[in-house]
Amino acid sequence: MIGAFAGSASLLDGIGPIPGGYDLQRLVLVFFCILMAPLGVLGSGGASRLEIVGWCVFGISIFFSTLSVDWTPYPFSESILYAAYLVAAFGIAVIVKHNPDCGLEKILGGILICGIFYALLTPSVYLFAITDDVTRLDRFLPWGFANIRFWSHTATWLLPLFPLALIIGPLSEIRLWKAIVVLASGIWWWLVFLSSARGTFCALLIAFVITVLVFRGAGGRFYRLLGVQLLIGVGFWAVLSVLVPSLISIDIELRAIGTDTSGRIPLWREAWMMSLERFPFGMGAQAWLTHEPLTEAYRERKTLGSPHNMYLLWAAEYGWVSVLGLGLIGLHYAFRVLGFRHLIAEGEVSDSRIMLACGIFMSVIAALVHAGVSGVFIMPPSMLIGLVVLGVFVTLFGAPLPSDLVAEKATFAGSRIREFATLTVFVGLIMWGGKVWDYYIHMLEDDIWVSENLGFGTTPRFWLHGYYPRQKELMEPENGD
After folding, report:
1. HEC profile for 352-420?
2. Model pTM score
3. Which pick of 187, 214, 344, 402 has the fewest CB atoms within 10 Å?
């Protein structure tokens, strides 16, 4: 249910009576975090010291950097989202751990079915475009997303998961299902080539190499399935992007693959300078939108809602201390992955579990790599899919390994403290949700004012109208107070 809900909100919004869109996806993500994060707190009893230290460092940095903000009426909207998002992934893991095998199959199956449904609807969009003599297919495909980048972020999470549809679940033994999965995954790869999503392709390539280095020959079946799906995608590209248009005499303009940085370097320099401005706690939540530019190059081209690098963005707004905290949490899971590999070498892990670990590991690594050159953890469709994948990742690698288990029962006092913390977090998140809704209403009002008075386009950030809040001198008085 969780996977299907997240997948449909990310990939299939706008189909049917629900209007969908970026802002609705953000509200769905906030709803997910409010429900799942308290469960993550409740199940935090088995966290390691390194993990706890990382959480404390990350939380303290976000709290202090956000308190210093005086230029936005909703400073905690985005900063609490990041904290709640990570804890919510642990909440999903708590749910799955009650029934690991069935839970993992259902959650991943829900996402994959939505991804397959999206792929199977794509040929109809392609046919409409071809019959209308459209020469730029990339302006229609991928469909359903406000921007190609939003789609590419989602593809980065999803593509390593498609081989798992052939391995896990009761449908994996049915030939027709296997054919549908291969067809759908090939369409997703074709869309990567069609849209020249180089960030996705490079991130997947790097993640694949790292996955091979970690799991070595144990993941051979996963590598082969992924390779077959990639080749099917190349075949779709040759037929649908080259052969068919040439047969019906349509001169298709293929999207060029850029070899430059697409203007990212000035953005990265600006974010770097911001991170040093109030070192080590950063300039505060959403400072990227509201700060006075520090470099001339950024001042001349200031149009985007983020620097296209999540780590520099977090360092600029929440400080390098927050990045350090995330790094410590990541280091904890690196040790867990290495421990999992040791169990594979000892023959204690089933083949299906190994394949599942390869797919989830590659998906997470690809997203983390892609986040270094784009806003993977800003866009709600990507974050919704990522939340579920991270929850499965925590389930697979976060549980204590057999050699680490200590025959020790949680004390009554300890459990009571976690229950109180869970209730406190839930009440706090409900209040935060109310503030997010207020932020949403004010953003809609400001969007109307901006379109009538300033003529700005949308710069997606928390909302699609990411210019709110703006610099003080540009703020409408009643919205800027």
Report:
1. HHHHHHHHHHHHHHHHHHHCCCCCCCCCHHHHHHHHHHHHHHHHHHCCCCHHHCCCCCCCHHHHHHHHH
2. 0.91
3. 402
